[in-house]
Amino acid sequence: MPLMNARRAKRRGPRRFTSRDLAVIGVLLGIPVLLDLALIWGPTLASIGLSFTSWDGIGDIHWVGIDNYKTLFTDYPPFWPAVRNNLLWVAFLGLVATPFGLLLAVLLDKGVRFSRFYQSTLYMPVVLSLAIVGFIAQLVFSRDQGALNAILANKNDPVDWLGDPDLNIWMVLLAAAWRHTGYVMILYLAGLKSVDPSLKEAAAIDGASETQTFFRVVLPTLRPVNIIVGVITVIEALRAFDIVYAINHGRNGLELLSVLVTDNIIGEASRIGFGSAIAVVLLTVSLGFIVTYLVQELRGGKKG
């Protein structure tokens, strides 16, 4: 009987799609592709084209070549502070918030008491938008009514955590890291749950310490998670906008490229061409980070 079934299956060959099947596949694939082209790649290509023009959104579009980029790099004071803050955002999330999220994931993976409660508490900020996190930061770091100055009892000489341009970027980074840490923790916790326990047992039998087991056995198996976390960290850092805009509209030390794009495109003196040039710079920086990181990680995965 099994032999007859095998012969019948062999005679039938591969299943042929009917016209109805092709229509369903075309709709299921075509609609997402069209939406992606219309909402992502269409505006992206339009921004690249507009970055070489001068346009206020109403009048005629004038071709100016690379004049927008020349002005941006040489005669636009907020640009370089915004670049510095964006790079600082990437470094802080990547070197502080992400390792801390990994540490929390490792501790929770050991099965500590009340781990479910800790997971829920640490993940809770992730469900909040960055705008809400910005309002919470104002409640904590406000000069006159903030919780931090109240705890420090600085009534006579309160610290202006959000008004001082030398301090406010660090306070905002702490608030952003508070949200980012929970996200990273959940991703790494899921990755740690999928690690084969026999690998840890084999390392322990070979005499490896717990630290050696983690860095030489567990962490290399988390390479796919590392790629995801790295890409998410860069994207979160470079697209940051809500939190600084909620605090002081991205000014006085909190300048970001995303804020400059908004100010130039939606501001009173709308300069869509110039704002598009800033958006193209932000896109280039984002792709540079992400492509470089992915290439290195994928090459490392093949060698491993």
Task: Summarize the structure in words.
Keywords: Cell membrane, Membrane, Transmembrane, Transmembrane helix, Transport. It comes from Streptomyces rugosispiralis. It is a multi-pass membrane protein. It holds the Pfam family BPD_transp_1. With 304 residues, the chain is mainly α. It has 14 helices and two strands; from the N terminus they run H-H-E-E-H-H-H-H-H-H-H-H-H-H-H-H. It has helices at residues 2-12, 19-50, 67-74, 79-109, 115-123, 130-141, 147-152, 168-193, 197-205, 210-221, 223-238, 242-248, 257-266, 272-303, and strands at residues 53-54, 62-63. A two-stranded antiparallel sheet has the order 1-2. A hairpin with a 7-residue loop joins strand 1 and strand 2 (62-63). Helix 4 (79-109) packs antiparallel against helix 11 (223-238). The two termini are 46 Å apart.
Provide a compact summary of the structure.
With 304 residues, the protein is mainly α. It contains 14 helices and two strands, in the order H-H-E-E-H-H-H-H-H-H-H-H-H-H-H-H.
The percent range for helix content is over 70%
**N-end to C-end Cα span:** 46 Å
Which ranges are low-confidence, i.e. pLDDT below 50, for 5 or more consecutive residues? none
Main beta sheet: 2 strands, antiparallel
Number of strands: 2
Portion in beta strands: under 5%
Rg over CA atoms: 26 Å
Strand order of the largest sheet: 1-2
Q: Which series of helices and strands comes N to C?
A: HHEEHHHHHHHHHHHH
* Nearest-integer average pLDDT: 83
- Class of secondary structure makeup: mainly alpha
Count of runs of 4 or more consecutive helical residues: 14
Shape, per Cα inertia axes:
globular
